[in-house]
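Problem statement: downstream parser choked on a complex file, so we are re-checking the raw output for the calcium ion run. The parser issue turned out to be on our end (a line-ending mismatch), but while we're here, posting the original submission so the record is complete.
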Amino acid sequence: MLQGSYNSLLVLFSLLVAVLAAYTSLEMAGRIVTAQGRAARLWLAGGAFAMGLGVWSMHFIGMLAFSLPIRLGYDPVITLLSLSIAVASSAFALWLVCQNDLPARRLTGGAVLMGLGVAGMHYTGMAAMQMEPGIVYDMPRFVLSIAIAMAASGVALKTAFSLRHNSRRTRPLRAGGAIVMGLGVAGMHYTGMWAASFPDGSLCIAATDGVNSAWVAVVIIVVTLAVTAVALTISVFEDLRLETENATLTRSLAQANQELGYLALHDALTKLPNRVLLEARLAQALASVDSEGGRFAVMFMDLDGFKVVNDAYGHHVGDRLLVQVAQRLASVVRAQDTLARVGGDEFVLLVPGGDVAGVTAAADRVLSAISASFDVEGHDLRISTSIGIAMCPTDGATVHDALTHADAAMYHAKSLGRNAFCFFDTSMNENLQGQLQLTQDLRAAIERRQLVLHYQPQFAAPDGPITGVEALVRWAHPTRGLIGPDEFIPLAEKTGLIVPIGEWVLDEACRQIREWLDTDAREWSIAVNLSPVQFSHPQLTALVRETLARHRVAPRYLTIEVTESAAMRNVDESLRILQSLHEMGVRISIDDFGTGYSSLMYLKRLPASELKIDRGFVRELAHDAEDAAIVSSVVALGHTLGIDIVAEGVETATQKEFLTRLGCNSLQGFLLGRPVPASDLDTSARPYPQASLS
Ligand code: C2E
Ligand code: CA
Ligand code: CA
């Protein structure tokens, strides 16, 4: 037998390469699990190549470390075949450990297959020497080497599987695992070599090609180191990239959270603190005066005339106006005050320090800041604000009481004629209680049949006959007597009660039309007022149609009055509703014309049959040349559009003559007839009944 010998340096290298290959495979397994889709497949392919190449170079360097007294060489084709066996088993191993689970049976099968692969690579590589005569293998050692290959594979698979998820702890563990695996693979190799013996006189056929084995060793070592180094470097960079990505993600998440936190406590439009933050500050302030004494003021501000601007110019202008209001308010408050927006056009100011003079000065500053005109997108807008002030803790020791009482004081300021401030007083609380009581009573009023309709006649100008009547609702309150609509319609609108009330008015009016037709053959039309709240109700058209049908009333007997600002609120939607009412045959009348801001040209788009000039204009007519000019141009425009003009609030004979001369078609007012119950119309409805008295 030929006596083999080993180059110990190369043996050492082969061990190192084995460990490196093992480490690479563990690292790759971690990558594949982290990546997804195409990236995972690329990592599997690249990883299998790096790992296969590593395992194979370990083997090949081991071969090069071995020498016999004869020249040795390796057939390149068979050598490449052994390399591909190594890559294929590596691919299989990597694929196996990246599955979701690795039950014992699969692990065993995998270890057997992979062990066979490694052994296959080794013995194919041996065959590349093409010894003549063939290598003689010692059977037990041969079997042992395969067993070692399988055992090493089993350990490798198990280690790779349990360390496949990347974390801080896995790298050192992988290094340890790699040493064990590397020793296993090398052990298999050297056991295999130990099993082999070369008969005396053997020839290495492959050696005839004359490849210098030292060079081959260097090239293989360099290539292997390069490939594994590249794989590991990419892997580490990938980790860094993931880490920065994670850090960026965490940072933007934190930022988003911060913004959400800000949004939760601030109003998106004006950027002022919102109700939530205000209540928190208010609670804080209350707690502090509770423990340390002292007082502070809660100022509740509600803009006067904001709704009109919003209705007339649209939400966009309304929003811009609110932003400007917020800026002006912010410019007059002090740093220690809290200014918040708590509702559409409602703001609250917390003023620490309880001296009435200081609070009064603050309120004055706010009033004058808001009453100066605003320039919003070229519109010159004038509004004002009403302020209610609660001095805490006297006027409110809880958040709820403080705000409710400031609110009550604000309503009082409004009732004083707006653009004013008012300190809370316990009597206002009674007002508040009164309002609550009123709401409850109003709710019951419909069922208790306490609502009544009065009718005010409209006359063909100048002296009749009666062309129709306007229905005006009243509330026959059991204890307070007859209450006018101005006192309960706003409340009804706020509470939504206007919807059932409006239904009742419509029904009652139609019933009355029927009655007049039946008993007196009187063909009077009735005008019914519609609140903006009802006007935005989707079932309005259906309600009108059903009510008319129920009383068998032709639509031409009914006129619907909507105010100019209600019709302009949501022009397209309004047009749709008005159009369908118009098509039904119901007359449309634009009420209070001239008080809104709408362009006269809008009129062209409205399917209106009638236009009621607001009594404010009528009142000023005689003194104000400008008003007269406006009325006359409205009349002229109305006539070109085929719209009838009604003047309301006619109180004097002068007004009557003037309006007739301007060309108004109909007149309505105390001069000609007050609103009265239907039964009284007979006597008051003669042609110019009261005009003859005056
Ligand atoms: P409006 O639609 O402008 O109704 C005309 C108001 O002017 C009536 O007041 C009427 O009594 C009053 N008036 C009539 N002639 C004269 C006059 O020569 N001089 C003066 N100074 N006033 C005159 P009323 O009945 O108090 O109604 C007030 C408002 O309440 C109405 O204004 C209308 O907007 C609303 N309203 C009345 N009834 C209803 C209803 O059934 N539904 C709805 N939604 N609103 C109603
Ligand atoms: Ca009206
Ligand atoms: Ca009116």
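For whoever reads this later: Residues 567 and 574 are 6 Å apart (CA to CA).
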